[in-house]
Amino acid sequence: MKVRGVLLACSAGALWALSGIMCQILFEKYFVSPEWLASVRLLIAGLLLTGLSFFQRNVPRRKFSSKDLFSLVLFSLIGMLGVQYTYFKAIQYSGAAIATILQFTGPIFIFIFLVLNKEKKIKWLEVLLMLATFVGVFLIVAEGSIRTLNISTMGFIMGIASAVTLAFYTLQPRKLLVKYGEMRVAGLGMLIGGLAFQPIRPIWRPEFQMDSYSLGLVISIIVFGTALPFLFQLSSLRFIEASLASVLTVVEPILATILSVVLFNSHFAGVQLLGFLIVIVSVILLTRLSDKNVLPEEERIS
């Protein structure tokens, strides 16, 4: 069961990496607005997943209580919409490298919450491994030099905000997932978030040149970069703890860096290879440590 959770979390990270590359192309080649892209990807992906949830078998079709409905709205606006919008704005202000590094501090916020909420005990080896993973990501994305990162105040604020909303997105809906199912919660979360953003940037006002290539990118981002990875990430929480699930999405910055090197004919620096080694070893050790740290599902998500 744990292997399934690890694979789901890693798959989410891989698909988000592909999505990041496609988003970058839309931003640079077609000058697509981050607001419009966040709006359309959440709305359409939400409709897709919500529609598919009606065909699920062996999933309870409970009616949302008023308390759970309020929780779902919070998840939609702060979690789903929040993590998308703040990440895109961090890219806009300071670039993908800084946005990726800052968002990857999300597992630290998750770890702190779980400890304060007494869902897990502090293990200093685990803390050190999480910090080592962050250092590894920094070496990979920034090639180990802070001088390569052009960070603005707003870029920093939005990057940290994306990490906090990522932590909220991972932790807040755990009870909803058990009661109503991952696909239904993810679909409704995206749908509500997408609808809430329509007055700001409606889907029918793309304001860029729509051709077959750009349309293909948008569709791919909606299906493979939004609907599937968010569903995979939420589904992984049934099998592994939230802090591990978030750390395993380290696949995203690693694969994004590899794709950037391949697509733009660059090469890996020695410090980046060191970063890969640090991340791989740290994640493997964190995965093994979590075996002794995971509570039964009923206790972990209750």
Characterise the protein shown here.
The structure is a single chain. The chain has 14 helices and no strands. With 302 residues, the chain is an all-alpha fold. Helix 4 packs across helix 7 (153-171), helix 5 (106-116) packs across helix 7 and helix 6 packs antiparallel against helix 13 (270-290). The chain is globular. The model is unreliable at 292-302 (pLDDT under 50).
Entry summary:
The protein has helices at 2-29, 34-53, 66-94, 96-103, 106-116, 124-142, 153-171, 174-180, 182-197, 212-236, 242-248, 251-263, 270-290, 297-301. By secondary structure, the chain is mostly helical.
> How would you state the average pLDDT, rounded?
82
Structure annotation, total helices: 14
Query: What order do the SSEs take from the amino end to the carboxyl end, as H and E?
Result: HHHHHHHHHHHHHH
| Unreliable segments of 5+ consecutive residues | 292-302
Give helix % range: over 70%
Strand content: under 5%
Alpha carbon gyration radius: 19 Å
Number of E strands:
0
Main sheet properties: none
Shape: globular
Distance between the termini: 19 Å
Derived from helix and strand composition plus strand pairing, the structural class reads: mainly alpha
